[in-house]
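User: Teach me something about this protein's shape.
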Amino acid sequence: MTTTHTPTATKSAAPPPRSVLRSTAFLRLWTGTTASGLATWALPFVLGLAVLHHDLGAAGLGLVLAARTAGFLVAVAIGGVLADRHSRRTVVLWSALAAAVAAPLLAAGLGRSLVLMTAAAALAGAGQGACRPAFQALTAETVAPEHRQQANAAMTMAVRSSTLTGPALTALLAAFLDIGTLLLGIGLLWLVAALVPGKGTTGTTVANQAGAEPAPRAGFRAEFLEGIREARRHPWFLAGLAALVAVIALGYSATSVALPLISRDRYDTEWVLAAAMTAYTVGALGGALVIARCRPRSQGWAAFAGLAAYGVAPLSLMLPVHPLVVVAAYAVAGIGIELFNVPWFTATQREVAPDKLARVSSLDFLVSYGLAPVGLALIAPAIDAFGFTPVLAVCSAACFLVPAAAALVPTARHFARTAPATTD
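Assistant: First, the predicted structure itself:
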């Protein structure tokens, strides 16, 4: 039996760059990921502008966005399996190209065919869903372990910056371009996501390791279940998933529904809504900057504390406080969410078996994104039945208590099976 060794000792290897931002391979990946994130954010915003321009009705908007979500949820599971079966770079290419093709189809159907727009939105969601776990796994292949936290922070900062500046930029472009042209621009962003990233450089593609005998493949269902079994090997991951579900389905959903109503009814102004959402994004940017350099000794506990900080947002909406208190609470929530997200993604890339990373990542996206619409659908009727205060109190308590309980799970303290070695 022959083995093939990685040719790392033939020449003295160049030392890794001090900053991941000096790596061309990472910058290409960062550009592609940022383009996909911006395209993902921009589509519902541009479709909302189409409603304002009377090119699309409100009911049609709901149908198109629902089709997009359905396409995402179906494809994210499939994409996880495919990204572990095949080259992650190839999965990114074809999924992003699918989303790019959807953009001109949306433009063609605008004002003409709701059926075409619905089908195109499902295709766009499928492309978005399939590329998410592939991008996560490709990050692990491209970036050395010691730089992954910085890399994940850089990526989330790009997404948050797009969210902060995107509305103003899109509104400005809409003054000069029609909705169809803006949709074609979203397609160009997906082309950047498809074509710019390179292949992984620090690790081998798990589907095609040099010298490895091709193993017979199990069916799709068996491979997806294998990813679930891998996730179950990591109690900290399951605990974090449960905490995410509580915060997204209860805390985030409650504030999404309650904040616009409270801004209108209690404070009699839209300023509170705009300022709170801006503060959340700015806080998230600050959190990403901090965690890019900070390495807490107990990173899991620190991450769960950050996630629990989201509870201050629904708590601030319960009480008749000054509007600046609401804005400050949202800033704290934004800081905390990135203090969780970046170590969470980094730990998943470090701890999960490389050949199952995409499937475990797809499980993360499937659960967190899949349950968010459920929370949004239930919160409004709950508020109508019980009022703001009881519902927000329950949601705030869940945001505080579920991450605290998750932090008590074995292996949660360090997001790892064993504590990291420390040097004094």
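Now, about its shape. The chain has a mean pLDDT of 86. Residues 235-265 form the longest helix (31 residues). If you'd like, I can walk through any region in more detail.
User: That's plenty for now, thanks!
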